[in-house]
C-alpha cells in the first residue's frame, strides 16, 4: 500500500551546522511532497513543498530535494538553530477531482539541536 | 498561528463512551481533514470533508464519523471508545480547489485519553 517513511527516527546536530533529514516514499503517483515541522504540544506546520515534476526547491534556510528515480525526498536546513528542534514529517499529496486526496505522513524524525 | 481552532484541548473519557471534537477552519477554507496522531507517530488520515460532504476516508471503522457545517467548521464523533483511541486528534483546513498544493493548516489538536 501507500507509505511514506523516514530513514532515521532521531537526528542530533550542532547549532550552526547543516541538517539533512531523509525520507523514502512508495507512491509514484503523488503530485506533491511536503515537509511539516511539529513542535512539542503543537500541530504540524508547513515548511516547504515540491511538485513531482521538480527536483529541487529552496526556501528560507531550507532546501527540499526530490529524487524520483529512487523515490527519495530530503530536507536540508542550513545553519541549524535551537528553534529548529522539532519532529519533521515528510508527507505526500495528490490531486483527486475537486480537491486534494488525503495527505499521507511518514513516522517523523526528531531533530535535536545542540547549543 | 494558523487560524484553525480546536476544542476541547484535553479530555478524558472511559471505554464505551462517545466523544465529539470540534474544529473551526481558517477563514476562506472549504476543506477540513481530521487526523489521529498516536504518541511518537505520524498523523494518520481519518477523513476529509469538502463543502459539507465526505471526500475521502482512511482506514478507520464506522464508529468514527464526522460532519462539516455550512460555515465549514467541522466535528469528529467517535462512538464506543476504545483504549487505543487515546491520541491527539488534529484538524486541518485547506483551500481545496483554490490551493496549488493542498497545503494543510493544522490546529493544535485535542488530546483524548480513554481510560
Task: Sum up the structure in keywords.
heterodimer; A: 115 residues; mainly beta; six-stranded mixed beta sheet; five-stranded antiparallel beta sheet; 13 strands; 0% helix; B: 115 residues; seven-stranded mixed beta sheet; globular
Structural notes for this entry:
The complex is a heterodimer of chains A (115) and B (115). In chain A, strand 6 (56-58) and strand 7 form a beta hairpin. Chain A is mainly β and 115 residues long. Chain A is 0% helix and 56% strand. Chain B contains no helices and eleven strands. In chain B, the strands form two sheets. In chain B, strands 2, 4, 5, 6, 9, 10 and 11 form a seven-stranded mixed sheet that branches. The N and C termini of chain B lie far apart (32 Å). Chains A and B meet through strand 4, strand 5, strand 10, strand 11 and strand 12 of A and strand 4, strand 5, strand 9 and strand 10 of B.
What is the strand and helix layout of this fold?
The complex is a heterodimer of chains A (115) and B (115).
Chain A (H helix, E strand, L loop, with lengths): L3 E3 L3 E5 L4 E7 L6 E7 L6 E7 L4 E3 L3 E6 L4 E6 L8 E8 L1 E2 L2 E2 L3 E2 L3 E6 L1
Parallel strand pairs in A: 2-13
Antiparallel strand pairs in A: 1-3, 3-8, 4-5, 4-9, 6-7, 7-8, 9-12, 9-13, 10-11
Chain B lengths: L4 E3 L2 E4 L5 E6 L6 E7 L6 E7 L2 E5 L6 E5 L5 E5 L8 E8 L10 E2 L3 E5 L1
Parallel strand pairs in B: 2-11
Antiparallel strand pairs in B: 1-3, 3-8, 4-5, 4-9, 5-6, 7-8, 9-10, 9-11
Compact summary:
The complex is a heterodimer of chains A (115) and B (115). Chain A is mainly β and 115 residues long. Helix content of chain A is 0%, strand content 56%.
Amino acid at each position: 500500500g501507500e507509505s511514506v517513511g523516514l530513514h532515521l527516527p532521531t537526528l542530533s546536530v550542532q547549532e550552526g551546522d547543516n541538517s539533512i533529514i531523509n525520507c523514502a516514499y512508495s507512491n509514484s503517483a503523488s503530485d506533491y511532497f511536503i515537509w511539516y515541522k511539529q513542535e512539542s504540544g503543537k500541530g504540524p506546520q508547513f515548511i516547504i513543498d515540491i511538485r513531482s515534476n521538480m527536483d529541487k526547491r529552496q526556501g528560507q534556510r531550507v532546501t527540499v530535494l526530490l529524487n524520483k528515480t529512487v523515490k527519495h525526498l530530503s530536507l536540508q536546513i542550513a545553519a541549524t538553530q535551537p528553534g529548529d528542534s522539532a519532529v519533521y514529517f515528510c508527507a505526500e499529496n495528490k490531486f483527486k477531482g475537486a480537491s486534494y486526496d488525503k495527505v499521507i505522513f511518514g513516522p517523523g524524525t526528531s531533530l535535536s539541536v545542540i547549543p | 498561528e494558523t487560524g484553525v481552532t480546536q476544542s476541547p484541548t484535553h479530555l478524558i473519557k472511559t471505554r464505551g463512551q462517545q466523544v465529539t471534537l470540534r474544529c473551526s477552519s481558517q477563514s476562506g477554507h472549504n476543506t477540513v481533514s481530521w487526523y489521529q496522531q498516536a504518541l511518537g507517530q505520524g498523523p494518520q488520515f481519518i477523513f476529509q470533508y469538502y463543502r459539507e460532504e465526505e471526500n475521502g476516508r482512511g482506514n478507520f471503522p464506522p464508529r468514527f464519523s464526522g460532519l462539516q457545517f455550512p460555515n465549514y467548521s467541522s466535528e469528529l464523533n467517535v462512538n464506543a471508545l476504545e483504549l487505543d483511541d487515546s491520541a491527539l486528534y488534529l484538524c486541518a483546513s485547506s483551500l481545496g480547489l483554490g490551493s496549488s498544493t493542498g497545503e494543510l493548516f493544522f490546529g493544535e489538536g485535542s488530546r483524548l485519553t480513554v481510560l
